[in-house]
Design goal:
The protein is α+β, with helices and mostly antiparallel strands. It is built from 21 helices and 21 strands. Helices cover about 40% and strands about 20% of the residues. Bound molecules: adenosine-5'-triphosphate. Adenosine-5'-triphosphate (ATP) binds near residues 238, 258, 265, 310 and 412.
Protein backbone atom coordinates (compact mmCIF):
# COMPACT_ATOMS: atom_id res chain seq x y z
CA UNK A 1 0.00 0.00 0.00
CA UNK A 2 1.44 3.40 -0.89
CA UNK A 3 2.40 5.33 2.23
CA UNK A 4 1.12 8.40 0.39
CA UNK A 5 -2.50 7.44 1.15
CA UNK A 6 -1.81 7.49 4.85
CA UNK A 7 0.16 10.75 4.80
CA UNK A 8 -2.52 12.48 2.78
CA UNK A 9 -5.26 11.32 5.17
CA UNK A 10 -3.31 12.58 8.17
CA UNK A 11 -2.80 15.87 6.40
CA UNK A 12 -6.52 16.27 5.77
CA UNK A 13 -7.41 15.13 9.28
CA UNK A 14 -5.59 18.17 10.59
CA UNK A 15 -8.00 20.40 8.73
CA UNK A 16 -11.43 18.86 9.39
CA UNK A 17 -13.76 20.48 11.88
CA UNK A 18 -16.12 17.69 12.90
CA UNK A 19 -15.76 14.20 14.25
CA UNK A 20 -18.08 12.85 11.53
CA UNK A 21 -15.66 14.15 8.92
CA UNK A 22 -12.80 12.40 10.70
CA UNK A 23 -14.67 9.10 10.65
CA UNK A 24 -15.42 9.52 6.93
CA UNK A 25 -11.78 10.26 6.10
CA UNK A 26 -10.57 7.29 8.12
CA UNK A 27 -13.19 5.01 6.60
CA UNK A 28 -11.97 6.03 3.14
CA UNK A 29 -8.44 5.22 4.16
CA UNK A 30 -9.43 1.80 5.54
CA UNK A 31 -11.35 1.02 2.35
CA UNK A 32 -8.12 1.48 0.42
CA UNK A 33 -6.03 -0.49 2.90
CA UNK A 34 -5.21 -4.13 2.08
CA UNK A 35 -6.23 -6.31 5.08
CA UNK A 36 -2.68 -7.54 5.68
CA UNK A 37 -1.36 -4.06 6.55
CA UNK A 38 -4.39 -2.64 8.34
CA UNK A 39 -2.77 -3.21 11.74
CA UNK A 40 0.25 -1.11 10.67
CA UNK A 41 -2.01 1.65 9.37
CA UNK A 42 -3.97 1.69 12.65
CA UNK A 43 -0.79 1.88 14.74
CA UNK A 44 0.77 4.61 12.59
CA UNK A 45 -2.28 6.89 12.64
CA UNK A 46 -2.44 6.44 16.41
CA UNK A 47 1.16 7.67 16.53
CA UNK A 48 2.49 4.33 17.72
CA UNK A 49 4.13 1.16 16.44
CA UNK A 50 2.25 -1.38 18.56
CA UNK A 51 -0.26 -1.58 21.40
CA UNK A 52 0.67 0.75 24.27
CA UNK A 53 0.81 -2.05 26.84
CA UNK A 54 3.74 -3.60 25.00
CA UNK A 55 5.74 -0.53 26.02
CA UNK A 56 5.86 2.78 24.21
CA UNK A 57 8.37 2.62 21.38
CA UNK A 58 11.44 4.67 22.18
CA UNK A 59 12.72 5.88 18.84
CA UNK A 60 15.64 7.57 20.57
CA UNK A 61 15.88 10.42 18.08
CA UNK A 62 16.12 13.81 19.70
CA UNK A 63 15.42 17.08 17.91
CA UNK A 64 19.16 17.50 17.39
CA UNK A 65 19.45 14.14 15.68
CA UNK A 66 16.43 14.86 13.50
CA UNK A 67 18.11 18.06 12.32
CA UNK A 68 21.16 16.00 11.40
CA UNK A 69 18.96 13.53 9.51
CA UNK A 70 17.27 16.35 7.59
CA UNK A 71 20.60 17.90 6.72
CA UNK A 72 21.85 14.54 5.45
CA UNK A 73 18.68 13.74 3.50
CA UNK A 74 18.42 17.09 1.75
CA UNK A 75 22.10 18.06 1.49
CA UNK A 76 21.79 21.29 3.43
CA UNK A 77 23.73 22.43 6.47
CA UNK A 78 22.38 21.88 9.96
CA UNK A 79 22.36 25.64 10.37
CA UNK A 80 20.07 25.99 7.36
CA UNK A 81 17.70 23.39 8.83
CA UNK A 82 17.65 25.23 12.16
CA UNK A 83 16.85 28.53 10.45
CA UNK A 84 14.05 26.91 8.54
CA UNK A 85 12.62 25.35 11.70
CA UNK A 86 12.47 28.86 13.14
CA UNK A 87 10.74 30.36 10.14
CA UNK A 88 8.44 27.40 9.34
CA UNK A 89 7.42 26.88 12.94
CA UNK A 90 8.30 23.23 13.47
CA UNK A 91 10.47 20.39 12.24
CA UNK A 92 7.65 18.69 10.34
CA UNK A 93 6.97 21.75 8.23
CA UNK A 94 10.69 22.32 7.77
CA UNK A 95 10.99 18.79 6.38
CA UNK A 96 8.07 19.41 4.02
CA UNK A 97 9.64 22.62 2.73
CA UNK A 98 13.11 21.12 2.31
CA UNK A 99 11.70 18.19 0.39
CA UNK A 100 9.69 20.49 -1.93
CA UNK A 101 12.82 22.55 -2.60
CA UNK A 102 14.95 19.48 -3.28
CA UNK A 103 12.28 18.13 -5.64
CA UNK A 104 12.49 21.43 -7.51
CA UNK A 105 16.22 20.94 -7.93
CA UNK A 106 15.82 17.31 -8.97
CA UNK A 107 13.30 18.19 -11.68
CA UNK A 108 16.01 20.20 -13.47
CA UNK A 109 17.87 16.94 -13.94
CA UNK A 110 14.72 14.93 -14.49
CA UNK A 111 15.98 13.36 -17.67
CA UNK A 112 19.22 12.11 -16.17
CA UNK A 113 18.16 11.36 -12.54
CA UNK A 114 15.74 8.67 -11.56
CA UNK A 115 12.63 10.10 -9.86
CA UNK A 116 11.98 9.36 -6.19
CA UNK A 117 10.42 5.94 -5.73
CA UNK A 118 7.15 5.50 -3.87
CA UNK A 119 7.33 4.50 -0.21
CA UNK A 120 5.03 1.76 1.04
CA UNK A 121 3.33 1.55 4.44
CA UNK A 122 5.24 -1.61 5.29
CA UNK A 123 8.56 -0.05 4.39
CA UNK A 124 7.99 2.98 6.58
CA UNK A 125 6.58 0.90 9.43
CA UNK A 126 9.39 -1.64 9.34
CA UNK A 127 12.08 1.05 9.19
CA UNK A 128 10.54 2.83 12.19
CA UNK A 129 10.48 -0.45 14.11
CA UNK A 130 14.14 -1.00 13.20
CA UNK A 131 15.00 2.50 14.45
CA UNK A 132 13.16 1.81 17.72
CA UNK A 133 14.97 -1.49 18.21
CA UNK A 134 18.50 -0.26 17.50
CA UNK A 135 20.54 -0.02 20.66
CA UNK A 136 24.12 0.27 21.80
CA UNK A 137 27.28 1.45 20.12
CA UNK A 138 26.90 3.01 16.71
CA UNK A 139 23.12 2.92 16.94
CA UNK A 140 22.89 6.72 16.96
CA UNK A 141 24.49 7.09 13.54
CA UNK A 142 22.50 4.23 12.13
CA UNK A 143 19.25 5.78 13.40
CA UNK A 144 20.18 9.06 11.67
CA UNK A 145 21.00 7.27 8.43
CA UNK A 146 17.82 5.20 8.43
CA UNK A 147 15.72 8.32 9.08
CA UNK A 148 17.54 10.25 6.35
CA UNK A 149 16.96 7.35 3.96
CA UNK A 150 13.22 7.46 4.60
CA UNK A 151 13.10 11.23 4.24
CA UNK A 152 15.01 11.11 0.98
CA UNK A 153 12.42 8.82 -0.58
CA UNK A 154 9.42 10.56 0.99
CA UNK A 155 7.20 13.14 -0.70
CA UNK A 156 6.89 16.52 1.11
CA UNK A 157 3.71 15.45 2.95
CA UNK A 158 5.20 12.06 3.81
CA UNK A 159 8.34 13.74 5.15
CA UNK A 160 6.19 15.93 7.40
CA UNK A 161 4.34 12.86 8.70
CA UNK A 162 7.54 10.89 9.35
CA UNK A 163 9.20 13.75 11.22
CA UNK A 164 6.14 14.42 13.35
CA UNK A 165 5.73 10.72 14.08
CA UNK A 166 9.35 10.47 15.25
CA UNK A 167 8.91 13.55 17.41
CA UNK A 168 5.74 12.04 18.91
CA UNK A 169 3.80 15.05 17.69
CA UNK A 170 1.23 13.76 15.23
CA UNK A 171 -1.46 16.40 15.25
CA UNK A 172 -4.32 14.35 13.85
CA UNK A 173 -5.60 13.51 17.33
CA UNK A 174 -7.31 10.33 16.22
CA UNK A 175 -8.68 8.48 19.22
CA UNK A 176 -9.49 4.80 19.61
CA UNK A 177 -13.22 5.48 19.42
CA UNK A 178 -12.90 7.29 16.07
CA UNK A 179 -10.87 4.44 14.63
CA UNK A 180 -13.44 1.91 15.85
CA UNK A 181 -16.28 3.92 14.28
CA UNK A 182 -14.47 3.94 10.95
CA UNK A 183 -13.69 0.21 11.15
CA UNK A 184 -17.37 -0.47 11.87
CA UNK A 185 -18.37 1.51 8.77
CA UNK A 186 -15.98 -0.32 6.47
CA UNK A 187 -16.02 -3.88 7.82
CA UNK A 188 -19.19 -4.21 9.85
CA UNK A 189 -21.75 -2.35 7.82
CA UNK A 190 -22.12 0.46 10.38
CA UNK A 191 -23.09 1.19 13.95
CA UNK A 192 -24.37 -2.30 14.80
CA UNK A 193 -20.83 -3.69 14.50
CA UNK A 194 -19.42 -1.10 16.87
CA UNK A 195 -20.15 -2.92 20.20
CA UNK A 196 -18.61 -6.12 18.84
CA UNK A 197 -15.42 -4.30 17.82
CA UNK A 198 -15.34 -2.49 21.13
CA UNK A 199 -15.73 -5.63 23.18
CA UNK A 200 -12.90 -7.31 21.28
CA UNK A 201 -10.74 -4.24 21.90
CA UNK A 202 -11.61 -4.19 25.60
CA UNK A 203 -10.59 -7.81 25.94
CA UNK A 204 -7.35 -7.52 23.91
CA UNK A 205 -6.34 -3.86 24.36
CA UNK A 206 -4.81 -3.85 20.88
CA UNK A 207 -6.69 -1.99 18.18
CA UNK A 208 -4.23 -2.98 15.44
CA UNK A 209 -4.76 -6.66 16.19
CA UNK A 210 -8.56 -6.24 16.36
CA UNK A 211 -8.56 -4.39 13.01
CA UNK A 212 -6.51 -7.15 11.44
CA UNK A 213 -8.81 -9.94 12.66
CA UNK A 214 -11.80 -7.93 11.46
CA UNK A 215 -10.29 -7.21 8.04
CA UNK A 216 -8.89 -10.66 7.42
CA UNK A 217 -11.46 -12.93 9.13
CA UNK A 218 -14.60 -10.84 9.42
CA UNK A 219 -16.92 -9.65 12.16
CA UNK A 220 -18.02 -13.15 13.19
CA UNK A 221 -14.46 -13.99 14.22
CA UNK A 222 -14.33 -10.95 16.46
CA UNK A 223 -17.40 -12.19 18.32
CA UNK A 224 -15.44 -15.24 19.38
CA UNK A 225 -12.57 -13.27 20.91
CA UNK A 226 -11.77 -14.31 24.46
CA UNK A 227 -9.32 -12.92 26.98
CA UNK A 228 -5.84 -14.33 26.65
CA UNK A 229 -3.54 -14.77 29.62
CA UNK A 230 -0.59 -12.43 29.19
CA UNK A 231 -2.68 -9.88 27.29
CA UNK A 232 -4.21 -7.15 29.50
CA UNK A 233 -7.97 -6.62 29.67
CA UNK A 234 -9.14 -3.02 29.86
CA UNK A 235 -10.40 -2.56 33.42
CA UNK A 236 -14.01 -2.22 34.49
CA UNK A 237 -14.62 1.14 36.17
CA UNK A 238 -17.13 2.42 38.67
CA UNK A 239 -19.57 5.30 38.83
CA UNK A 240 -19.52 7.35 42.02
CA UNK A 241 -22.27 8.22 44.47
CA UNK A 242 -22.48 9.20 48.11
CA UNK A 243 -25.97 8.35 49.27
CA UNK A 244 -26.23 4.80 50.65
CA UNK A 245 -29.96 4.51 49.91
CA UNK A 246 -29.60 5.60 46.30
CA UNK A 247 -26.48 3.53 45.82
CA UNK A 248 -28.38 0.38 46.77
CA UNK A 249 -31.32 1.37 44.58
CA UNK A 250 -28.99 1.83 41.62
CA UNK A 251 -27.31 -1.49 42.32
CA UNK A 252 -30.73 -3.14 42.18
CA UNK A 253 -31.36 -3.83 45.88
CA UNK A 254 -29.01 -6.27 47.53
CA UNK A 255 -25.37 -5.66 46.67
CA UNK A 256 -21.91 -6.99 47.29
CA UNK A 257 -20.06 -4.34 49.29
CA UNK A 258 -16.28 -4.49 49.41
CA UNK A 259 -13.59 -2.42 51.05
CA UNK A 260 -12.17 0.08 48.59
CA UNK A 261 -8.47 -0.25 49.25
CA UNK A 262 -6.16 2.70 48.70
CA UNK A 263 -3.39 1.17 46.66
CA UNK A 264 -2.56 0.27 43.09
CA UNK A 265 -4.92 -1.76 40.94
CA UNK A 266 -3.30 -4.93 39.66
CA UNK A 267 -4.45 -7.28 36.94
CA UNK A 268 -2.52 -10.42 37.69
CA UNK A 269 -2.06 -12.93 34.88
CA UNK A 270 -0.87 -16.38 35.74
CA UNK A 271 0.24 -18.17 32.61
CA UNK A 272 1.39 -21.61 33.61
CA UNK A 273 4.42 -20.89 35.82
CA UNK A 274 4.81 -17.27 34.80
CA UNK A 275 3.14 -14.19 36.29
CA UNK A 276 2.58 -10.83 34.60
CA UNK A 277 1.08 -7.84 36.40
CA UNK A 278 -0.63 -4.96 34.60
CA UNK A 279 -1.56 -1.61 36.12
CA UNK A 280 -4.85 0.29 35.84
CA UNK A 281 -3.37 1.89 32.71
CA UNK A 282 -2.26 -1.50 31.39
CA UNK A 283 1.42 -0.89 31.96
CA UNK A 284 3.46 -3.96 32.67
CA UNK A 285 4.48 -3.45 36.31
CA UNK A 286 5.68 -7.00 36.97
CA UNK A 287 9.27 -5.94 37.70
CA UNK A 288 8.09 -3.61 40.48
CA UNK A 289 6.42 -6.44 42.37
CA UNK A 290 8.58 -9.57 42.54
CA UNK A 291 6.96 -10.26 45.93
CA UNK A 292 3.47 -10.26 44.37
CA UNK A 293 4.74 -12.54 41.61
CA UNK A 294 5.83 -15.03 44.28
CA UNK A 295 2.51 -14.75 46.11
CA UNK A 296 0.57 -15.32 42.89
CA UNK A 297 2.65 -18.33 41.90
CA UNK A 298 2.19 -19.99 45.27
CA UNK A 299 -1.41 -19.07 45.94
CA UNK A 300 -3.32 -19.09 42.66
CA UNK A 301 -4.32 -22.66 42.24
CA UNK A 302 -4.90 -22.72 38.46
CA UNK A 303 -2.91 -23.40 35.33
CA UNK A 304 -3.95 -20.12 33.68
CA UNK A 305 -5.92 -17.34 35.34
CA UNK A 306 -6.48 -13.61 35.25
CA UNK A 307 -7.44 -12.10 38.60
CA UNK A 308 -7.81 -8.52 39.74
CA UNK A 309 -6.97 -6.94 43.05
CA UNK A 310 -5.48 -3.98 44.83
CA UNK A 311 -1.87 -3.89 46.01
CA UNK A 312 -1.55 -2.00 49.29
CA UNK A 313 1.50 -1.26 51.40
CA UNK A 314 1.31 -1.60 55.16
CA UNK A 315 3.19 -1.01 58.34
CA UNK A 316 5.04 -4.25 59.04
CA UNK A 317 5.06 -3.65 62.79
CA UNK A 318 1.43 -2.80 63.35
CA UNK A 319 -0.15 -4.35 60.27
CA UNK A 320 -2.06 -1.14 59.49
CA UNK A 321 -2.70 -0.37 55.83
CA UNK A 322 -0.96 2.73 54.49
CA UNK A 323 -2.19 5.15 51.83
CA UNK A 324 -1.29 5.03 48.15
CA UNK A 325 1.31 7.81 48.60
CA UNK A 326 3.38 5.38 50.70
CA UNK A 327 3.26 2.83 47.90
CA UNK A 328 4.54 5.55 45.58
CA UNK A 329 7.71 5.75 47.69
CA UNK A 330 8.26 2.09 46.95
CA UNK A 331 7.77 2.65 43.25
CA UNK A 332 10.38 5.42 43.26
CA UNK A 333 13.08 3.28 44.88
CA UNK A 334 15.69 2.06 42.46
CA UNK A 335 16.75 -1.04 44.31
CA UNK A 336 13.69 -3.27 44.29
CA UNK A 337 15.06 -5.52 47.05
CA UNK A 338 15.33 -2.58 49.44
CA UNK A 339 11.92 -1.34 48.33
CA UNK A 340 10.30 -4.69 49.12
CA UNK A 341 11.74 -4.63 52.63
CA UNK A 342 10.80 -1.04 53.37
CA UNK A 343 7.38 -1.16 51.81
CA UNK A 344 5.90 -4.63 52.12
CA UNK A 345 2.59 -5.16 50.34
CA UNK A 346 -0.62 -7.10 50.68
CA UNK A 347 -2.88 -8.02 47.79
CA UNK A 348 -6.66 -7.87 48.16
CA UNK A 349 -8.34 -9.73 45.30
CA UNK A 350 -11.77 -8.79 44.06
CA UNK A 351 -12.39 -10.38 40.65
CA UNK A 352 -11.70 -13.27 38.31
CA UNK A 353 -11.74 -12.64 34.56
CA UNK A 354 -10.39 -15.84 33.09
CA UNK A 355 -9.75 -19.34 34.30
CA UNK A 356 -8.16 -22.31 32.54
CA UNK A 357 -9.39 -21.51 29.03
CA UNK A 358 -12.74 -20.10 30.12
CA UNK A 359 -13.81 -16.47 29.73
CA UNK A 360 -15.33 -15.30 33.03
CA UNK A 361 -16.02 -11.70 31.99
CA UNK A 362 -19.48 -12.69 30.76
CA UNK A 363 -20.48 -14.40 33.98
CA UNK A 364 -22.36 -12.69 36.81
CA UNK A 365 -20.33 -11.46 39.74
CA UNK A 366 -21.28 -14.19 42.22
CA UNK A 367 -20.11 -16.86 39.83
CA UNK A 368 -16.82 -15.02 39.33
CA UNK A 369 -16.41 -14.56 43.06
CA UNK A 370 -17.09 -18.14 44.00
CA UNK A 371 -14.65 -19.38 41.35
CA UNK A 372 -12.09 -16.86 42.63
CA UNK A 373 -12.52 -18.09 46.19
CA UNK A 374 -11.97 -21.66 45.03
CA UNK A 375 -8.63 -21.01 43.33
CA UNK A 376 -7.10 -18.63 45.89
CA UNK A 377 -5.21 -19.96 48.85
CA UNK A 378 -5.52 -17.09 51.30
CA UNK A 379 -2.49 -16.03 53.31
CA UNK A 380 -1.67 -13.01 55.50
CA UNK A 381 -0.72 -10.95 52.47
CA UNK A 382 -2.69 -12.47 49.60
CA UNK A 383 -6.40 -12.59 50.21
CA UNK A 384 -9.92 -11.87 49.03
CA UNK A 385 -11.08 -8.29 49.62
CA UNK A 386 -13.12 -7.77 52.79
CA UNK A 387 -16.81 -7.80 51.90
CA UNK A 388 -20.38 -8.03 53.04
CA UNK A 389 -23.75 -8.44 51.34
CA UNK A 390 -26.53 -6.07 52.18
CA UNK A 391 -29.66 -4.31 51.00
CA UNK A 392 -29.84 -2.12 54.09
CA UNK A 393 -28.52 1.47 53.80
CA UNK A 394 -27.62 1.64 57.51
CA UNK A 395 -25.59 -1.52 57.24
CA UNK A 396 -23.89 -0.15 54.14
CA UNK A 397 -23.03 3.04 56.02
CA UNK A 398 -21.67 1.05 58.94
CA UNK A 399 -19.49 -1.07 56.68
CA UNK A 400 -18.32 2.10 54.94
CA UNK A 401 -17.20 3.60 58.24
CA UNK A 402 -15.52 0.36 59.23
CA UNK A 403 -13.62 0.42 55.91
CA UNK A 404 -12.50 4.00 56.50
CA UNK A 405 -11.34 3.25 60.00
CA UNK A 406 -9.23 0.40 58.66
CA UNK A 407 -7.33 2.65 56.29
CA UNK A 408 -9.50 2.24 53.18
CA UNK A 409 -10.89 4.97 50.97
CA UNK A 410 -14.49 3.80 51.29
CA UNK A 411 -16.37 0.93 49.69
CA UNK A 412 -17.15 -0.45 46.27
CA UNK A 413 -20.79 -1.45 45.92
CA UNK A 414 -21.32 -4.09 43.24
CA UNK A 415 -24.59 -5.18 41.67
CA UNK A 416 -25.41 -8.83 42.21
CA UNK A 417 -28.13 -9.51 39.63
CA UNK A 418 -27.78 -11.96 36.76
CA UNK A 419 -26.54 -9.29 34.34
CA UNK A 420 -23.70 -8.24 36.62
CA UNK A 421 -20.99 -9.13 34.10
CA UNK A 422 -17.46 -7.72 34.05
CA UNK A 423 -17.82 -4.75 31.72
CA UNK A 424 -14.23 -4.49 30.47
CA UNK A 425 -13.21 -0.94 29.59
CA UNK A 426 -16.52 0.55 30.68
CA UNK A 427 -17.62 2.78 33.52
CA UNK A 428 -21.12 1.91 34.66
CA UNK A 429 -23.54 1.51 37.55
CA UNK A 430 -22.76 -2.16 38.07
CA UNK A 431 -19.95 -0.91 40.29
CA UNK A 432 -20.43 2.16 42.44
CA UNK A 433 -17.64 3.74 44.44
CA UNK A 434 -18.66 5.35 47.69
CA UNK A 435 -15.73 7.40 48.90
CA UNK A 436 -15.21 10.24 51.26
CA UNK A 437 -15.29 12.93 48.64
CA UNK A 438 -14.80 15.62 51.20
CA UNK A 439 -11.20 14.57 51.46
CA UNK A 440 -9.10 17.36 52.79
CA UNK A 441 -5.81 17.62 54.49
CA UNK A 442 -5.83 17.75 58.26
CA UNK A 443 -3.82 20.90 58.74
CA UNK A 444 -3.81 21.21 62.52
CA UNK A 445 -2.13 18.73 64.77
CA UNK A 446 -3.94 17.50 67.85
CA UNK A 447 -2.69 16.55 71.29
CA UNK A 448 -4.01 13.22 72.46
CA UNK A 449 -3.62 11.13 75.59
CA UNK A 450 -2.25 7.59 75.69
CA UNK A 451 -4.85 5.27 77.23
CA UNK A 452 -3.66 1.88 76.00
CA UNK A 453 -0.98 0.09 74.02
CA UNK A 454 -0.70 -2.77 71.54
CA UNK A 455 2.15 -5.20 71.06
CA UNK A 456 3.94 -5.02 67.73
CA UNK A 457 4.38 -7.74 65.17
CA UNK A 458 7.41 -8.65 63.10
CA UNK A 459 10.41 -6.49 63.91
CA UNK A 460 8.54 -4.95 66.83
CA UNK A 461 7.50 -8.35 68.23
CA UNK A 462 7.38 -8.31 72.03
CA UNK A 463 7.62 -4.52 72.13
CA UNK A 464 4.85 -2.00 71.87
CA UNK A 465 4.01 -1.18 68.26
CA UNK A 466 1.01 1.14 68.56
CA UNK A 467 -0.77 3.28 71.12
CA UNK A 468 -4.45 3.91 71.73
CA UNK A 469 -5.00 7.65 71.82
CA UNK A 470 -7.86 9.67 73.32
CA UNK A 471 -9.24 13.18 73.42
CA UNK A 472 -10.47 14.82 76.58
CA UNK A 473 -14.22 15.21 77.04
CA UNK A 474 -14.41 18.17 79.36
CA UNK A 475 -18.13 17.91 80.05
CA UNK A 476 -17.91 14.29 81.12
CA UNK A 477 -14.31 14.44 82.34
CA UNK A 478 -13.41 11.27 80.49
CA UNK A 479 -10.93 10.37 77.79
CA UNK A 480 -12.59 9.18 74.60
CA UNK A 481 -10.63 7.18 72.07
CA UNK A 482 -9.81 8.71 68.68
CA UNK A 483 -7.26 6.47 66.98
CA UNK A 484 -4.59 3.84 67.15
CA UNK A 485 -1.22 5.31 66.20
CA UNK A 486 1.66 3.14 65.03
CA UNK A 487 3.36 5.37 62.49
CA UNK A 488 5.82 8.19 62.89
CA UNK A 489 7.77 6.73 65.82
CA UNK A 490 11.53 6.52 65.60
CA UNK A 491 13.04 3.26 66.76
CA UNK A 492 14.41 4.95 69.88
CA UNK A 493 10.92 6.24 70.78
CA UNK A 494 9.59 2.69 70.64
CA UNK A 495 12.55 1.32 72.57
CA UNK A 496 11.84 3.70 75.43
CA UNK A 497 8.09 2.97 75.57
CA UNK A 498 8.07 -0.10 77.87
CA UNK A 499 10.06 1.68 80.60
CA UNK A 500 8.11 4.85 80.16
CA UNK A 501 4.69 3.21 80.38
CA UNK A 502 5.54 0.55 82.96
CA UNK A 503 4.59 2.52 86.09
CA UNK A 504 1.19 3.35 84.55
CA UNK A 505 0.14 0.02 83.10
CA UNK A 506 -3.08 -1.39 84.58
CA UNK A 507 -4.98 -4.62 84.31
CA UNK A 508 -8.19 -3.00 83.13
CA UNK A 509 -9.26 0.22 81.53
CA UNK A 510 -8.91 3.37 83.62
CA UNK A 511 -12.31 4.48 84.93
CA UNK A 512 -11.99 7.80 83.16
CA UNK A 513 -11.35 6.12 79.85
CA UNK A 514 -14.25 5.47 77.50
CA UNK A 515 -13.14 2.88 74.94
CA UNK A 516 -14.80 0.20 72.89
CA UNK A 517 -11.78 -1.46 71.42
CA UNK A 518 -9.66 -3.71 73.59
CA UNK A 519 -6.06 -2.63 74.04
CA UNK A 520 -3.40 -5.26 74.78
CA UNK A 521 -2.50 -3.28 77.88
CA UNK A 522 -4.31 -0.38 79.47
CA UNK A 523 -2.45 2.73 80.54
CA UNK A 524 -3.33 5.52 82.97
CA UNK A 525 -4.09 8.72 81.10
CA UNK A 526 -0.80 10.48 81.76
CA UNK A 527 1.12 11.00 78.54
CA UNK A 528 0.19 13.50 75.89
CA UNK A 529 1.44 13.22 72.31
CA UNK A 530 1.15 15.49 69.32
CA UNK A 531 -0.50 13.71 66.37
CA UNK A 532 -1.17 14.59 62.75
CA UNK A 533 -3.26 12.65 60.25
CA UNK A 534 -4.64 12.76 56.74
CA UNK A 535 -8.11 13.85 57.79
CA UNK A 536 -10.75 13.52 60.46
CA UNK A 537 -13.24 10.79 59.80
CA UNK A 538 -16.19 9.02 61.42
CA UNK A 539 -15.60 5.59 62.89
CA UNK A 540 -17.85 2.98 64.44
CA UNK A 541 -15.13 1.84 66.84
CA UNK A 542 -14.03 5.07 68.48
CA UNK A 543 -15.84 6.85 71.28
CA UNK A 544 -14.83 10.49 70.80
CA UNK A 545 -18.05 12.55 70.41
CA UNK A 546 -19.87 9.31 69.79
CA UNK A 547 -23.47 9.74 68.66
CA UNK A 548 -23.18 13.50 68.27
CA UNK A 549 -22.43 13.66 64.56
CA UNK A 550 -23.94 10.32 63.64
CA UNK A 551 -25.54 7.54 65.66
CA UNK A 552 -23.08 4.78 66.51
CA UNK A 553 -20.05 6.68 65.25
CA UNK A 554 -17.30 8.70 66.80
CA UNK A 555 -14.59 10.94 65.41
CA UNK A 556 -11.35 9.37 64.34
CA UNK A 557 -8.17 10.33 62.52
CA UNK A 558 -7.27 8.70 59.26
CA UNK A 559 -3.61 7.67 58.94
CA UNK A 560 -2.45 9.15 62.25
CA UNK A 561 1.26 9.81 62.80
CA UNK A 562 3.14 10.49 66.00
CA UNK A 563 5.04 13.77 65.97
CA UNK A 564 6.41 14.22 69.51
CA UNK A 565 5.67 13.95 73.21
CA UNK A 566 4.10 16.98 74.81
CA UNK A 567 5.62 16.67 78.26
CA UNK A 568 4.54 20.25 78.87
CA UNK A 569 0.87 19.22 78.81
CA UNK A 570 -1.28 17.51 81.35
CA UNK A 571 -3.85 15.05 80.03
CA UNK A 572 -6.60 17.56 80.72
CA UNK A 573 -4.77 20.01 78.46
CA UNK A 574 -5.18 17.63 75.52
CA UNK A 575 -7.42 18.47 72.59
CA UNK A 576 -11.03 18.14 73.69
CA UNK A 577 -13.79 16.13 72.06
CA UNK A 578 -15.65 19.39 71.44
CA UNK A 579 -12.65 20.82 69.55
CA UNK A 580 -12.53 17.72 67.39
CA UNK A 581 -16.23 18.09 66.55
CA UNK A 582 -15.56 21.65 65.44
CA UNK A 583 -12.52 20.63 63.43
CA UNK A 584 -14.57 17.94 61.72
CA UNK A 585 -17.32 20.39 60.87
CA UNK A 586 -14.84 22.94 59.52
CA UNK A 587 -13.32 20.22 57.38
CA UNK A 588 -16.76 19.38 55.99
CA UNK A 589 -17.59 23.01 55.22
CA UNK A 590 -14.31 23.51 53.45
CA UNK A 591 -15.12 20.83 50.93
CA UNK A 592 -18.83 21.05 50.44
CA UNK A 593 -20.15 24.05 48.53
CA UNK A 594 -23.02 24.50 50.94
CA UNK A 595 -22.60 24.23 54.67
CA UNK A 596 -24.39 21.15 55.99
CA UNK A 597 -27.78 21.86 57.51
CA UNK A 598 -28.10 21.57 61.25
CA UNK A 599 -28.00 17.99 62.36
CA UNK A 600 -27.07 16.82 58.88
CA UNK A 601 -23.44 15.87 58.69
P1 LIG B 1 -11.39 5.17 38.16
O1 LIG B 1 -10.50 3.99 38.31
O2 LIG B 1 -12.81 4.86 38.53
O3 LIG B 1 -11.22 5.93 36.89
P2 LIG B 1 -9.65 6.43 39.92
O4 LIG B 1 -8.51 5.92 39.12
O5 LIG B 1 -9.60 7.83 40.43
O6 LIG B 1 -11.01 6.24 39.19
P3 LIG B 1 -10.88 5.55 42.23
O7 LIG B 1 -11.87 6.62 42.06
O8 LIG B 1 -10.10 5.63 43.48
O9 LIG B 1 -9.83 5.45 41.09
O10 LIG B 1 -11.71 4.16 42.17
C1 LIG B 1 -11.49 3.04 41.42
C2 LIG B 1 -10.31 2.18 41.89
O11 LIG B 1 -10.52 1.62 43.18
C3 LIG B 1 -10.12 0.92 41.07
O12 LIG B 1 -9.51 1.19 39.85
C4 LIG B 1 -9.26 0.06 41.97
O13 LIG B 1 -7.90 0.37 41.78
C5 LIG B 1 -9.62 0.52 43.36
N1 LIG B 1 -10.25 -0.50 44.22
C6 LIG B 1 -9.96 -0.69 45.53
N2 LIG B 1 -10.70 -1.66 46.07
C7 LIG B 1 -11.49 -2.15 45.09
C8 LIG B 1 -12.49 -3.16 45.03
N3 LIG B 1 -12.83 -3.88 46.11
N4 LIG B 1 -13.10 -3.37 43.84
C9 LIG B 1 -12.76 -2.65 42.73
N5 LIG B 1 -11.83 -1.67 42.74
C10 LIG B 1 -11.20 -1.41 43.89
Amino acid sequence: MPFRLLAETIDRLELVSSRTQMVTLLANLFKNTPPDVIDKVVYLISGSLWADWKGMPELGISEKLLIKALSLAYSVSERQVEDLVKSAGDLGKAAETLKSRSQGKVSLFAFTQSTTRELTVSEVYNTLVKIAQLQGEGSRDLKIRLTAGLLKDASPKEAKFIVRFIEGKLRAGVGDATIMDALAVVYGGGASARPIIERAYNLRSDLGEVAKILATQGLESLKGIKPEPGVPIRPMLAERHNDPREILAKAGGEALVEYKYDGERAQIHKVSNKVIIFSRRLENITSQYPDVVEMALSNINAEDAIVEGEIVTYNRDTGELLPFQELMHRKRKHDIHIAIKEYPVKVFLFDLLYLNGEDYTNKPILERRSALEKIIRETDDFMIAEYTRTSNPDELEKFFMQAISEGCEGVMVKALHKDSVYQAGARGWLWIKYKRDYKSEMIDTVDLVVVGAFYGKGRRGGKFGALLMAAYNQEKDVFETVCKVGSGFKDEDLDKLPDMLKPYIRSSKHPRVDAEIEADVWVDPVFVAEIIGAELTLSPIHTCARGILKPDAGISIRFPRFIMWRTDKRPEDATTSRELIEMYQRQLKKVTTKAPAEGEV
